[in-house]
Amino acid sequence: MSFDHIAPIYNIGENVFFGNRLNLARTVFTDELMNSRSVLLLGEGRGKFLQELLAINHCCSVTIVDSSTRMIRYQKSIVTKANFDRVNFHCVSIETFSTNQKFDLICSFFFWDCFTVQQINKLVPFCSTLLLTKGLWINSDFIDLMNHRNDTNYFKIRLLYLFFHLTTGIRAWRVEPFKFFAEENGLRLLKIDETKKNFISTELYQKII
User: Fold this and answer.
1) Residue 76 gets which letter from DSSP?
2) 149 band by pLDDT with thresholds 50, 70 and 90
3) Looking at residues 26-51, what average pLDDT do you find?
4) Calpha distance 157→142 (Å, rounded)
5) What's the CATH number of domain 7-207, 3.40.190.10, 3.40.50.150, 1.25.40.80, 3.90.1170.30?
6) Distance CA 77, CA 8 (A)
């Protein structure tokens, strides 16, 4: 799986198909973003969210795990010199990422839709170990309406999966509901912001064990 080929047009595609809706989903829980001190970003695209996070939170340190060399290059290009020491870039897949650090916030925005249920079953438990007890996890993803095959959103998601399958080699073909995996790994749902019209859901969890 590699996003290097589509990195140059990634933001263009996001803006054309979704406008600012994805970015609004990433920044729903502003208070939690402002109060965090150590943040782990799982996949960050070209750095749109990173830029906003650094602007609203002047104290946090950020660790980014992204397997795309080109995406990392774009992310670095938008970080100012004053903030560069606050960001640690890891150009590796989440499967091979290793750290002794614990975080008080994990953000996974439109990330798990790239993975199969078998992969998620292995990766969420690992990521949960990186989160401090009472730490927060914000997750955004599409609402995959599998039981409504006449729903326009359902076909939009199928089209997106076909595109990413052909261009990046992802193995997944549907968006798995993150809530199930979160609750299986000691995370409690605190808040949810869901807009079925835009088929996007953002969930805030807290690690309780």
Assistant:
1) H
2) low
3) 95
4) 8
5) 3.40.50.150
6) 13
